[in-house]
Amino acid sequence: MEFKKVLMGPALLLPLAAGAANHEVLVGQGGNAYVPATLTIAAGDTVTFRQVGGFHNVASQPGAVTAFRCGPNGCDGVGGGNGEPGGGTWQQTVTFPNAGTANYLCDVHGQSMSGTIIVNPVPVTLQSFDVD
Ligand SMILES: [Cu+2]
Fold it and tell me: Residue ranges per domain, the chain?
């Protein structure tokens, strides 16, 4: 019986990152509320907070994985904007680069108007093949 020696090349694992997605939270939808109140996204995704009514803002709470405070005049620390609450319709987009949790609330309505962004690690697809 003869054995043929087979040389196996190193296997490569290439992580394929999924593309970033945008998500939307409606601010003031159905009263003093964020809809959805809890949103799960992936690291690198963006969330657009879109006010549809009332007088609100979105302000992350201590410990949030990404800090933000946004309102009709922009977001604190971004291009001279400020996150003071206001009326009318407006939208601001926040990027969440890191996995973790961001609790936020409205500076006007406090804990009665709060939400949570859960940021999961970037989903990775491993593709395996051999190099001979
Ligand atoms: Cu509010």
Answer: 17-120
Statement: the pTM of the whole predicted model exceeds 0.70:
yes
Q: Which residue has the tokens 């961001």?
A: 102
How far, in Å, is the centroid of ligand 1 from the Cα of 124? 37
CA distance 23 to 40: 9
Omega before residue 36 within 30° of 0, cis:
yes
Question: Mean pLDDT in each 10-residue stretch from start to end of the chain (132 residues)?
Answer: 52 62 97 98 97 98 98 97 98 98 98 98 79 80
The CATH class of 17-120 is mainly beta
CA of 129 to the centre of ligand 1 (A): 53
Ligand 1: distance of its center to the CA of 95 in Å?
Answer: 21
Q: Using CA atoms, how far apart are residues 105 and 81, in angstroms rounded to an integer?
A: 19
Which residues are CB-neighbours of 95 under 8 A, at least 6 positions away?
44, 45, 46, 66
